[in-house]
Amino acid sequence: MTLLETDRPTLDLEDIVESAAAALEGAPTLEIIRWAVATFGDRICLTSSMSDAALIHLVSKVKPGIDVLFVDTGYHFAETIGTRDAVEAVYPVNVINVTPSRTVEEQEAALGPRLFGRNPDLCCHLRKVEPLGRALEGYMAWFSGIRRDETASRRDRRVVEWDRKRGMVKVNPILGWTQEDMDNYIEDNGVLVNPLHYDGYPSIGCAPCTRPVAPGEDPRSGRWAGLGKTECGIHL
Question: Which sites bind [4Fe-4S] cluster (predicted)?
Answer without folding.
Answer: 123-124, 206, 209
